[in-house]
Amino acid sequence: MALKIPQEYLDSLKGLKPRIYLGGKRVNLLDDPTTLTAVRANARVYELAQDPRHREVMTATSHLTGEVINRNLHVARSVYDLEKRAEMALLTSQELGTCNYRCVGADTLTGLASITWEMDRDLGTGYHSRFNDFLRYLQDGDLACSGAVTDPKGDRGKRPGEQEDKDVNLRVVEKRDDGIVVRGAKVSQSGAIAAHETIVVPTSSFRPGEEEFAVAFAVPNGAPGLTYICQYTPFTAERESAQDIMELGNPLYGVRETAIMVFDNVFIPWERVFMCGETKYAGRLVSRFAKTHRMNCGGACKVGFADLIIGAAQLAVEYSGVPKAPHIVDKLVEMVYLSETCHACTIAAAVKGREEPAGSGIFLPDDLFGNVAKLNVAHGFWEIMKLAGDLAGGMVVTMPSERELSNPDASEYVQKYLKAAAPAKDRMRIAKFLQNWTAGLHGPGTWHGAGSPQAQRMMIYALTNLEEKKAMAKKLAGL
Ligand SMILES: Cc1cc2nc3c(=O)[nH]c(=O)nc-3n(C[C@H](O)[C@H](O)[C@H](O)COP(=O)(O)OP(=O)(O)OC[C@H]3O[C@@H](n4cnc5c(N)ncnc54)[C@H](O)[C@@H]3O)c2cc1C
Q1: Which of 18, 54, 311, 331 is the most buried (most CB within 10 A)?
Q2: Domain for residue 348, yes or no?
């Protein structure tokens, strides 16, 4: 059985030497308090797969080897698999309060499985068997993969070939007998620093003449020429100065950690290249990745986050002493209704999933429901955070540090004046937890993660059969 235990994952990282910069200095993945949050989150995902209570959700049977594998490395072969994939996103969010950093990688693998099958069928290429060899390698080693889609893109008003610096879209700069050399970057890379491999796919559709950008491949962590430049936020600074991580909003797993991943002439051997110049298929790959990822992000991952926020808001009102006030109950109901509406869209996207392309054996979710799930959550999540802020009170942003409780000059005052129906310490802990959500990075994160809402609007318009709806209306109206 190819399932790593958390310690094996941690040991495997010791052999990696990623070049990571954070806050203007080089850091070691296993020493830095911020990079460690991504490591811990991955270790927890390995642990969840070992837990008999979560086996059904966190593991699957490989269609390549028949072995039990981590679901993050499984390509959906049925509607049941799609449902379980979404349940994994829900569970990991509830358990971590941050990314399952293997999630984007999982969805790029599904997109690649589907598109390489189609390219082989249409063009007679050998990409799919190459991809399957790579997938087998990942599954055998239970390797953690991140997914790299988003290019820096430069001037959004210009095509890739018109950019002042063409490297703002990752591209092939040399083709050799043994492989390709790529240059460029991928931005906002969730957890790439702590993954064994990164799966790289194009950022958008490309036209004939833009072949150099239509490239998909896998690259191991720390490959020569790779540099990771991490995000740095007030949460990073706060973690760096923490005396006890329990004073932080999400002590163990932190906020969602990303990095700019720079590819400075990185060599990729042919056996790890899964698209190279097939512009016609680049857009299809992105959209197959996106429909899977939007299903998981929209009404599963963020629903897990919402469950945490709703739970914390309920605790906050119990601690403040007014849990049954009618407007408070109403606001909690509103939060649940918003969250579960997104959840329902994701379940619908999975249940309405189908084999794509027909005959491939690979299942993808319904596109319309997946996009609706993501668009719904982009709006709903802000609302849920607003209501949580309302219920928990101004203390969510005005609270002093929990360190004051051990400050002999301030402790007595803080305990006296922040006590309500619960002790000050409990109120402060839950307020800090909610600060992490309502005054943190999760609003814009949920908005843009899995694509900015305008991308979903465009897809919803393209997928809607307005002619059919017109015909229905005309029939009943007698036109
Ligand atoms: C927390 C978080 C985690 C992420 N994790 C990952 C990850 O693991 N892997 C990964 O690959 N990506 C990841 N992303 C990136 C995410 O997919 C992008 O943020 C998203 O696709 C938007 O791209 P952008 O950030 O470049 O924004 P922009 O493209 O700059 O968008 C900003 C605004 O400009 C508009 N716009 C952009 N282009 C055009 C145009 N041509 N015409 C008109 N309007 C335009 C958009 O609609 C939007 O309103 C993550 C993002 C976040 C926030």
Answers
A1: 18
A2: yes
CATH number for the domain harbouring residue 427: 1.20.140.10
Model pTM greater than 0.85?
yes
* Ligand 1 midpoint to CA 453 (Å): 9
C-alpha dihedral over 256, 260, 265, 268, to 10 degrees? 20
Tokens 């068997």 belong to which residue? 129
List the beta bridge partners of residue 69.
60
pLDDT of residue 1: 58
- The answer to whether position 214 is within a domain reads no
pLDDT at 39 exceeding the cut of 70:
yes
> Which residues neighbour 312 within 8 Å (Cβ) at sequence distance 6 or greater?
388, 392, 430, 433, 434, 437
**How many independent structural domains does the chain possess?**
1
Ligand 1 centre distance from Cα of residue 69 (Å): 31
Stretch (H or E) spanning 255: none
Which domain, by its residues, includes 433? 283-474
CA of 444 relative to ligand 1 center, distance in Å: 10
Mutate to test the pocket of ligand 1, among 107, 108, 156 (most ligand atoms within 8 A of CB): 156
In a domain, 351, yes or no: yes
How many angstroms is it from 245 CA to the middle of ligand 1? 31
Q: What is the pLDDT of residues 404-416, one digit of tens each?
A: 999 999 999 999 9
